Amino acid sequence: MDRLALNLADLQRVVEDLNTRGVVVKFHKESLGSTGEDSPMARFLMQMMGAVAEFERSLIREWQTEGIQKTQERSVKFGGKRY
């Protein structure tokens, strides 16, 4: 689910677009799917899982930024050897 879209709004837009084209979207890991004629509960579950995926991605970015800052404070150079 987190690989399909950048955030929750993008996920909803992509899934809705695919459904209007007649594509049934299934997320095997999360055991969710969308046909375009989903129940309110199915939409709610997809939105919740999308929000959790967006939150996890935000945490990863935050940790990555902190790690880069700490490494730069130690004056460690990034990248390969320059010739």
Describe the protein's architecture and organization.
The structure is a single chain. The chain has a two-stranded antiparallel ribbon. The longest helix has 34 residues. It is mainly alpha-helical and 83 residues long. It has one domain. The radius of gyration is 19 Å and the shape is elongated.
Which ranges are low-confidence, i.e. pLDDT below 50, for 5 or more consecutive residues?
A: none
Q: What does the average pLDDT come to? A: 85
Based on secondary structure, the structural category is mainly alpha
- Termini distance? 41 Å
Q: Indicate the overall shape.
A: elongated
Portion of residues in beta strands equals 5-15%
Can you summarize the main beta sheet? 2 strands, antiparallel
User: Going across the major beta sheet, what is the strand order?
Assistant: 1-2
The radius of gyration is 19 Å
The residue fraction in helices comes out at 55-70%
| Order of secondary-structure elements | HEEH
| Number of helical segments with 4 or more residues | 2
